Amino acid sequence: MEKRGGRVIVLVAIGIVAGTLSGLFGVGGGVIVVPALMAFLHLDQRRASATSLVAIAPAAVVGAITYGVQGEVHWLAALTLAVGSVVGAPIGARLLRALPLRVLPWTFVGFIAVVLVSLFVAVPTRGGEVHFGVVEAIVLLLLGLLSGVLSGLVGVGGGVVIVPGLEVALSAGDLLAKGTSLLTMVPTSVSGTVANLRRRAVDLRVGLTIGVTAAVCAPGGAWIARLVDPQVGTWLFAAFLVVVAVIVLRRGRRTAPRNEATDGEVA
After folding, report:
1. Is residue 88 a contact partner of residue 152, using CB atoms and an 8 Å limit?
2. What letter does residue 70 receive in the DSSP assignment?
3. Which of 20, 48, 61, 176 could form a disulfide with 37 if both were Cys (CB 3.0 to 4.6 A apart)?
4. Is residue 70 part of a domain?
C-alpha cells in the first residue's frame, strides 16, 4: 500500500510539472513525461511514449480551451498545422529507419540552435495577429510538416516547433502562438492514443493519473504566461528548449548503443 501511495505521488508530481509547462509554453509536455516514466516507473521508451500521449491529450484540451476563452487561438491555423503534422510524422518515421541512430539527436539539437537564434532576432509581441491567406497557409503546412517530421525522428514535436514558428515566421503574438499550438496537439494526441490502446501499448491508469493532474494545472500555466512579459517569456522558452535538447541528447546516448547492438545481432 505504501509503495502504491508513493507511485501515485510520483505520477501527480509529473502531472503538475507537465501541465504547468504545457500551459506556460504551449507544449504537450511529453518531453518531460517520457523520461520521467522511464526513470521512475522503469517503463521502456515505447510504452512510455505511448502512455505520455494519454497524459498529453487532456492537458492539451484544457490548455487550448483556456487560451481559446481568452481569444488566443487561431482555429484555422491549428487545423492547417495539424494536416501538415499528420503528413510529416510518417516521413520522420521513415527517416528514423534510414539515418544512423547517433545522428538523430544532433539533428534535433541543430534545429534547436536555429530556433534559439531566431527567437532572439525577432522581437516578441503580445497582440500580433496571423493574417490567414494562401501564403500563410503554405507556411503553416510546411511548419506542421516540419513538426511531424521531427516528431517521427526524435519523438519531440508540437510546441517546440510550432510556437517559435508562429512567432517568427508569421509574427503571431506569444499567447496566440501557444494557444494555437495546444489546439494542434489535440487531434494528434487523441488519434495516437486510440491507436496505442488498440495495440495494448498503453498503461492507461498511469496516463490518466498524469493527464488529469496535468489538465488541472494547465490553466495555471496559461495564467502565468499571461502575467509574464513577452520578452521574459522568450527567455524562459529558450531555457526550456535547452533543457529539451539535453534530454534528447541523453536519451539518444542511452538508446543508440543498445539499438546498434541489436542491429548487429540481427545482421
Report:
1. yes
2. T
3. 48
4. yes
